[in-house]
Amino acid sequence: MLVRAVGRTVVLREECELMLTRFETELASISDGVGDAGSPTDIERVVLRDGSSVVIRPLAAGDEAAIASWFAGLAAETRYARFFAFLKQLDHRTQSELARVDHFNHEAIAAVASDGSTVGIARYLRIGKPRSAEVAVAVADAWRGRGIASMLLERVATRARAAGIEEFIAICLATNHAVIRLLSRLGATTVGPSDAGVVELRIDLKSTRPRSLLSRAAERRAG
């Protein structure tokens, strides 16, 4: 899962810093009004394939504790795949920004275990064109393989469509085949060429694809 283009390490780091700057800029353009976490019907308890259960709910605006709990459950490589950096912890600013949802331009759907820990988050952030948004998902390593990632992505895609978003854009490691396949289940997907081990996916939310045996296998590995 590591980027192997050693000669471009500095370039990749600069690109990631630019991505973070764009993320901060887009967040700053969102209204400062705090949205609620949705009605009670938005909260559901789901039994997973191994018999365990989680509560799926929209992330409450400002819930930094949930962000910290989720990040703590990510192993080093999972953190790298999500943030393109080996992070030991999230700084306060990033943690605050990730919790700054408004349930329209910036949405996050969380999976919460019975002990209260947040074990997965999928989110979208509207960018540039009003009908496009960046999407990302990560599940705590101890909870992978149970279908959580796919459930979160399906729900965040449903909310995005309701908000008028027609296209998801995702930046992934080229080696992260399982997540790429999971994302491709959301609609017709084009994958750009690998650049320093990173690819850009564009997912058409106006279309849908039937689930295949391949995507189900990917769901088991990544979920």
Task: Give a written overview of the molecule.
With 223 residues, the protein is α+β, with helices and mostly antiparallel strands. The protein has a single domain (6-222), classed as Aminopeptidase, CATH 3.40.630.30. 35% of the residues lie in helices and 23% in strands. Strands 1-2-3-4-5-6-8-7 form an eight-stranded mixed beta sheet, sandwiched between helices.
Care to give the gist of this entry?
The protein has 223 residues and is of the alpha+beta class. It has seven helices and eight strands, in the order H-E-E-H-H-H-E-E-E-H-E-H-E-E-H.
Rounded radius of gyration (Å): 16 Å
Class based on secondary structure composition and strand pairing: alpha+beta
What's the total count of β strands? 8
At the fold tier of CATH, the topology name is: Aminopeptidase
Which range best describes the helical content: under 10%, 10-25%, 25-40%, 40-55%, 55-70% or over 70%?
25-40%
Q: Tell me the span between the first and last alpha carbons.
A: 17 Å
How much beta, percentage-wise? 15-25%
Features:
Aminopeptidase, 23% strand, 7 helices, 223 residues, alpha+beta, disordered N terminus, 35% helix, eight-stranded mixed β-sheet, 8 strands
